[in-house]
Amino acid sequence: MTAPLADRLRPETINDMVGQRHLLGEGAPLRNIAQSGVLPNMVFYGPPGTGKTTLARILAKTTDLTLRKLNGTNASTADIKEIVGEIGTLAAPNGVLLYLDEIQYFNKKQQQSLLEYMESGKITLIASTTENPYFYVYNAVLSRSTVFEFKALTAKEIEPAVRRGFAFLANEQDVRITAPDEVAAHIAQACGGDVRRALNFTELSVLAAPRDEDGGKTVTLEAAAKLTGGNTFRYDKDGDEHYDVISAFQKSMRGSDPDAALHYLARLLTGGDLPSAVRRLMVCACEDVGLAYPQIIPIVKAACDIALSVGLPEAKIPLADAVILVATSPKSNTGDMAITAAMEDVQKGNYGRIPRCLQNKHFDGADAARPGQFYKYPHDFPHRWVEQQYMPDALLGKQYYFYGDNRNEQAAKAYWDAIKSEDRS
C-alpha cells in the first residue's frame, strides 16, 4: 500500500515546514527548543493538518531518546505498560520520547499512568490534540507540560507545499506534470488551512489527469475545482471551531457588521448547524438590540420560526434577512445589564420584605402599627402614574436600569421625566 503524499513528502527539518512562524520562525520558542537538544513535556494544540505530527518527528531527531508513538483513538493501558517496560533496557537506554496523538481520547486513568514517568524524566511526552487541552487533558498532565497552539495555515503559506507536491510527484512518477499557478492557488485556498488535505487534492488531481500526446499530464483549474468541490469546508459541531464560529457570529451582529455576520451565518448553515444560528440570532436581538428597537424581537422570532419550519436550504433566506436587520439596528444592552444587576443582588441576599401596598390582599398581623394595604391604583391618577413605594425598604433608592442613549429609550426617558416632574401639590 502506498502511503499518502503528505507522508511521503513530510518535511525533515523545521526549515522545510510551512506556516507556524509564531512558533518556528527565527527566535521563536519551538525553534529555540529544537536547537537546545533538550525537550520538555509539550502539548501541541490546533486543527488537523497544521504540522503537529511533523514537528514532533523532527524534534525526536534532536534527542537521544527512543521514539515511541501511540494514538489515543486505539491505544490502551497495555500499550503504555509495554512502553514503560522498555525504559532502562537496551530498547530504550536513555528513556522514551512518547508522541501521543489525539490525547483527548485517552481517559483520565490512562493519562494518569504517565505521570510518574513524566515526573522522573523517564518519559518525555509530546501530545497533540485538535481539541482545547484545558478541557480535555488531565490537569496534572497539563501542569507538567507546555502548551503550544498551532494555527490553521493561510492559502499563501500552503501554496509552496502544493507546488512542491507537484514537483515530487513528477519526479516520483518520472512524468512531466504541468500545473499552472492558479491551480496551486485554488488547491491551497480550498483545503481550509489543512496542508494534509491540500496534498491529498494535489495527488488526486495528478491521478485524475489524462495523459497528453507526449505522455505528460496537465492539471487544469477546471479539473482541480471539480475535485475540491464540496470538500472545501471543515466544521465540527462538537469542537472548538463550533464555539469560535457562533461566538464570531454574535459578536459581528453586536458590532453592526452585516457582512461579517452573514459570513459566519454561511459557515453555520454550510455545516448544517441551523439550531445554533437560530439560537444566537434570537439572543442577539434581545441582548444587543433590545430596547433600542424592541419591535425587533417578534420580527426575529418570526424569521427563526420560518427557518425552522422550512429547513435548509431555504432557511437561509429568512435568517439572512433577520441577521442583516439585527446587525444594522441601533444597539442597547440596558435590559441585559439591568436584569444582571438585579439578579446579582438577589443571589447575594440583598432583598427585603415586599412593601405592604404591593402584597396580595390578606390580613395584617396584630403588630401592624397601621393596618391596611394602602395600595394606590395607578389608573386612577393622571397619566396612569402615582408615586408610591415599590422597592423593599432594604433596597430603597437602588437603580438597576439606566436609559440608553438611543432614540427609543431617550423618548421614554423624556416622557417619564416630564410626568414625574409635574407639581402634584
Describe the structure.
The termini are far apart. The radius of gyration is 32 Å and the shape is elongated. 48% of the residues lie in helices and 7% in strands. With 425 residues, it is an alpha/beta fold. The model has no long low-confidence stretch (mean pLDDT 87).
Helix and strand arrangement:
Blueprint: H1 5-8, H2 21-24, H3 29-36, E1 42-45, H4 52-60, E2 66-71, H5 77-86, E3 96-101, H6 108-112, H7 115-120, E4 123-129, H8 133-136, H9 139-143, E5 146-149, H10 155-173, E6 177-178, H11 181-190, H12 195-208, E7 217-218, H13 221-228, H14 240-254, H15 258-270, H16 274-289, H17 296-310, H18 316-328, H19 334-347, H20 407-420
Parallel strand pairs: 1-4, 1-5, 2-3, 3-4, 6-7
Helix pairs in contact: 10-11, 10-12, 11-12, 11-13, 12-13, 14-15, 14-16, 15-18, 16-17, 16-18, 17-18
Descriptors for this entry?
7% strand, alpha/beta, 425 residues, single chain, two-stranded parallel ribbon, five-stranded parallel β-sheet
SS elements, strand count: 7
State Rg.
32 Å
Shape type:
elongated
Mean pLDDT: 87
Mind describing the biggest β-sheet?
5 strands, parallel
Report the sheet-strand fraction.
Answer: 5-15%
Could you write a compact summary of the structure shown?
Helices cover 48% and strands 7% of the residues.
